[in-house]
Specification:
The protein has 176 residues and is an alpha+beta fold. The protein has a single domain, classed as Transposase IS200-like (Alpha-Beta Plaits), CATH 3.30.70. 42% of the residues lie in helices and 15% in strands. It contains five helices and four strands, in the order E-H-E-E-H-H-E-H-H. The chain has a four-stranded antiparallel beta sheet with strand order 2-3-1-4, sandwiched between helices. Helix 1 packs antiparallel against helix 2. The longest helix has 22 residues. The chain is globular, with a radius of gyration of 16 Å.
């Protein structure tokens, strides 16, 4: 894959992973992917999140991000996870996804809530070098290929590989 034309400046980029509780495959329909995409776009437009790369898989997603000066990444991720948990939980209930809901409700009991979508961590890794940035970007873009979902990274609809390899992406806007 090409070299990505991003150079970390004063503030690092971060490679983040958010994983669904017990690796439940929630993102299996367009409307569930849309919740993630819409929330990322909202965080970009309103919360100071900058997005450089991403992939949404069936039970987790990866992002390469940074934030506007003065914005705390953990606060943005917390709000993102809270919103997507509520919205996705409502959809799973409406769709009567009993098997998935069983696991998500069981995980929520410890926190005395109704449903828990995301594992607590989001594993931010600071990327200070171009080499490491390229490595992580390739990792996320080839994730759907390794899983056997597509033959080429740019064929996965919910990946920034579509932008980096084809020069456009109608799903999500990147900050370059």
């Amino acid at each position: 894959m090409q070299r990505y034309k991003l150079i970390p400046e004063k503030r690092p980029f971060y490679f983040c992973t958010c994983t669904v509780v017990e690796w439940q495959c929630i993102f299996t329909q367009e409307k569930y992917f849309k919740v993630i995409v819409d929330s990322i776009n909202y965080c970009r437009e309103n919360k100071g999140l900058y997005l450089y790369g991403m992939v949404i898989m069936l039970n987790h997603f990866h992002m390469i991000v940074s934030t506007r000066e003065g914005v705390v990444l953990s606060n943005v991720i917390r709000d993102f996870k809270r919103h997507t948990s509520t919205k996705t939980g409502e959809m799973l209930i409406a769709d009567n996804k009993k098997n998935i809901l069983y696991h998500l409700q069981k995980a929520a009991e410890k926190q005395k809530s109704k449903i828990k979508i995301w594992q607590d961590e989001y594993h931010p890794v600071a990327l200070y070098s171009r080499k490491w940035l390229n490595e992580k970007m390739n990792y996320i873009h080839y994730n759907p290929v390794r899983k056997g979902y597509v033959l080429n990274p740019e064929d996965w609809k919910y990946s920034s590989a579509r932008y980096w390899l084809n020069g456009h992406d109608e799903i999500i806007q990147l900050d370059l």
